[in-house]
Amino acid sequence: INNTDASLFLSVCFSLILTEQRHQLIRQIPLEHICQETDSPVLGLDKHVRNEPSNIVQSCRYITDIKGLSPQTAQLVTTQNAYRLFPKADRH
Fold this sequence. Notes:
Layout: E1 10-12, H1 20-28, E2 34-36, H2 56-67, H3 71-85
Parallel strand pairs: 1-2
């Protein structure tokens, strides 16, 4: 993990952050290689409730807690990562 390929990204959805083993994975992946999942309907807070894009706020909160970052830093860097991954995305 220390030699993470510059083109590799880990998409973090809420279900990815529910176990300690996964917390360790998030700690090891540099923030510059993390994106946040917003549109997976089955990877949300509760397996019986459809996931919504607004849940990204909670997954961001967990990333900041796990990595010891400010929410602003996590939001900024993961947004920049998404634009690197999807360079044609609308940036408004």
